[in-house]
Amino acid sequence: MSMIVDDPLQSLLAGRIRREREARGWSIAELAEASGVSRAMISKVERAEASPTASLLGRLSGALGLTVSALLARAEADGGGGRLARAADQPVWTDPETGYVRRQLSPPGAEIEMVHVDLPPGARVAYPAASYAFMRGHSVWLIAGRLTIREGATATEMRPGDCLAFDFSVPMDREYANASDAPCRYVVTLARR
Fold first, then answer.
1. β 184-192/92-94 pair status
2. Nearest CA to 92 among 192, 176, 8, 187?
3. Rg (alpha carbons) of the chain, rounded to whole number
4. Fewer CB near the last or first residue (10 Å), C or N of the chain?
5. In which residue ranges of the chain is CATH 2.60.120.10 found?
6. Secondary element (H or E) of residue 140
7. What is the pLDDT of residues 71-118, one digit of tens each?
8. DSSP labels for 144-161?
9. What's the CATH superfamily of 8-76?
């Protein structure tokens, strides 16, 4: 038995993923091939019968040529929006697999996207190289806790106040990990090409 997700952002996100796919003239099978996500899962996500994980959103958004932030912002914009993103109206999304909480700080359509993330103790979130293929800039500023960012075989350990700028000259998978027993909080900035 499938369960319909009772979350306004999830419902908006389901419709947005479907519209992005249809705008490209893709079938579910074509999006599945481009993203590596099964047709069945895409169908469930588009019907709001399943909550996508952060990793799954990374694969879908990468295949669609969008950042996860842009996909979430477009979904939120479907429900209304403007130039000002008031704190009370900023979309918050929680990864059902890891408990990772993502708050879209910047208003929909902003040239530079800003995202606030709470990564629970022991959580890991991986994104494929395709998620970053259309970015020209991406930085992470650690507010609290400890964060390890893996880029291919390289691991960077971050402490509060550290800021890491990504190098996109070589495409690679990336993973954000909080191996500590305390929550981790950071801000991500993204700039599209």
1. unpaired
2. 8
3. 16
4. N
5. 85-192
6. strand 135-144
7. 877 777 776 556 778 888 888 889 989 999 999 898 877 778 899 999
8. ES-EEEEETTEEEEE-TT
9. lambda repressor-like DNA-binding domains (1.10.260.40)
Element (H, E) at 62: helix 54-64
Q: What angle do CA 91, 93, 94 make, to 5 degrees?
A: 155
Its pTM stands at 0.66
Torsion sign, CA atoms 101, 105, 108, 112: negative
Residues 6+ positions from 170 with CB-CB distance below 8 Å:
152
Model confidence over 39-75: pLDDT tens digits? Answer: 999 999 999 898 888 889 889 998 998 888 778 777 7
Q: Which CATH number fits domain 85-192: 3.90.79.10, 2.60.120.10, 3.90.190.20, 3.40.50.150?
A: 2.60.120.10
